[in-house]
Every structure is written in structure tokens, then in C-alpha cells.
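Appendix B. Chain record.
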Amino acid sequence: MQILNQAVSLRIFLGENDQFDGKPLYEAIVMTARERHLAGATVLRGPMGFGKSSRLHTSKILRLSEDLPLLIEIVDSEDNINAFLPILDGMMSSGLITLEKVQVLQYGEKAAR
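C-alpha cells predicted for this chain:
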């Protein structure tokens, strides 16, 4: 397998109920990333988690939470991610953002052999 490129993984941890301009924050972030032509974004919903407040958010029937933890992951070049960070900062009032350098092994469809 050939390493195609160095990139940065941007991870955004937030709650399902977080809002921006009257719509879910996770939707606003993904749509903004798309408008800025970032390589891609994925939203993952967690069945359980807690943050700074230590308040437990869970999808268990007996403790049903409507504010489940979400993770948005975006992988792109370091320059593109760095250009996106100030925009993201203006959209978020709370949450956690992490950056990690990654090696992209494949992007797009594999060529037919």
C-alpha cells in the first residue's frame, strides 16, 4: 500500500442539542465544511458519554437522553484544516476540538486491477 499524502484529522466533540443559527450545530459544521470544499466530514453519534460538566448522556431506555454525544471527523490537508479553524471557532460556544497528524493511505475509489 502506498502512502499518498500527509493530512490532519480534525475531531469535534459536541452534543446533539448544540445549535448554531437556529439549526443543529453538527449540520451547520458539516455544511460549512462542504461549502469550503474540505475533503469530507463524518458525524458519529455516541450511545454514551460525558463532558466537562460530568453529566452522563446515554441512550439507555431507563436514562433516555435527547442530547447524545456527537463526534464530527474531518480529514484534509493541514492548510485547509487551519483555514477552517477560525470559522469553527465562531460557530462553537462549547465542545472539544482536537487535531492529529495522519497518513492518508487511500482516498476515493481503488483503481481496477
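Further analysis of this model is presented in Appendix C.
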